[in-house]
Structures are given as C-alpha cells and as structure tokens.
Amino acid sequence: MRNLAFLIVGTFFGIVLYKSEAASWFRIYEMFQFDAFHMYGIIGSAVGLGVLFVQWVKRSKAKSFQGNEIVIEDKKRNFIANAVGGVLFGLGWALAGACPGPMYTLVGAGFLPILIVLFGALLGTFTYGLLKSKLPH
Question: DSSP readout, 3-34?
Fold first, then answer.
C-alpha cells in the first residue's frame, strides 16, 4: 500500500514538472542562455521551500512515517569537490537538456531519445559507486 502512495506522489510530481515546463528542453536552453526567468523561478521556489521545510524539521523534532526522529547532520564542506561535481552536473544538464527529475518525466511523456541520457546517468551513477572510496568527500 505504501508503494502505491509513492507511485501516486511520483506521478503527481511528474505531471507538475511537465505542465510547468520544467522538463522542456527549450526552457532549460533558455535558462542556460540567461534569456528567461522561468526556470530560475521554479528552482528558486524549490530551494526556498526546501530551506523552510528543513528548518521546520529541525525545529519541530519531526518524526518519520515509521515514528523515528528525523536527524539532519551537518556535512563537511569541500569546495573543490563541490565545484567539480557542480560543473560536471551542470555540463551534463546542459548537454542532455534535462536533469535527473525530468528525465523520468520525459520518458513518461513519450520522448524516447531521453532513454540514451537515462542510460548515461545510470552508468555515471554506477561508476561513481565504484570510485566513491577513492574520491574526496
């Protein structure tokens, strides 16, 4: 039953991504050309809501669905690793025209060439898993 709830929320999220044009290659291209505010507004709204939600979780001692307290630990900051990772992520996003969330939305919308990008993303994730112990964190 819980998996059905995840499926419903994921489907709703995909519809929102598609209808807001966040999965649109043209909108992503506009963003990287600094031609429109559309995507910056969506991303900025998501970041803002994320900050508010994390602060609410930290201050209210919120519990998970299983009843466990949610603990958000502070992470060590490594500027070089974050910069390299951010540049690689951004380059992949710009070249593919989609970040990981909309990739699945685009498959669901019937844009089958995105399967090549999805395969590349899965291959990159697998490669990271193999190299994780050798990378700075």
Answer: HHHHHHHHHHHHHHHHHTTTT-HHHHHHHHTT
